[in-house]
Write a structure and sequence with these properties.
By secondary structure, the protein is mostly helical. The protein has one domain. 63% of the residues lie in helices and 0% in strands. The N terminus is likely disordered. α2 packs across α4, α3 packs antiparallel against α4 and α4 packs antiparallel against α6.
């Protein structure tokens, strides 16, 4: 449980299985086989960066959306992107209960943000 009283994952292993959702995403070398590795690394980075023992989905997404990559931050960008995907996938039902197709819109927006930020590095 975090400071707000919400239960949040402290590791990526606690997130639901998401391969059915992200199989369609083929960007760089991000695959279902390594997305959890990148996400776990991104989670550890963010917990250290924010000095917290757990991270909420909104904290993860906000950090990723506001992240400004530099020329040497390709790996960190992948890690934050994969973490954001995992957090979105974990909240798919909650998001879609807010309004139909919210999850797909957020997934598309997050993927487009990754592509946009990736271009800044290259």
């Amino acid at each position: 449980m975090n400071e707000t009283g919400r239960i949040t994952p402290s590791s990526i292993a606690e997130l639901e299985y998401i391969s059915d959702t992200i199989d369609d995403i083929t960007i760089d070398d991000i695959t279902i086989e390594n997305i959890f590795m990148y996400a776990e690394e991104g989670l550890e980075y963010l917990k250290e960066e924010l000095s917290k023992s757990s991270i909420t989905g909104s904290e993860s997404l906000t950090y990723f959306y506001n992240y400004v990559p530099s020329s040497n931050s390709n790996i960190l960008l992948k890690q934050l992107f994969c973490l954001s995907l995992c957090m979105l996938c974990n909240k798919k039902d909650v998001l879609n209960n807010l309004s139909e197709d919210v999850y797909n819109k957020m997934l598309t927006y997050t993927t487009n943000k990754y592509i946009e930020k990736k271009r800044l590095i290259n």
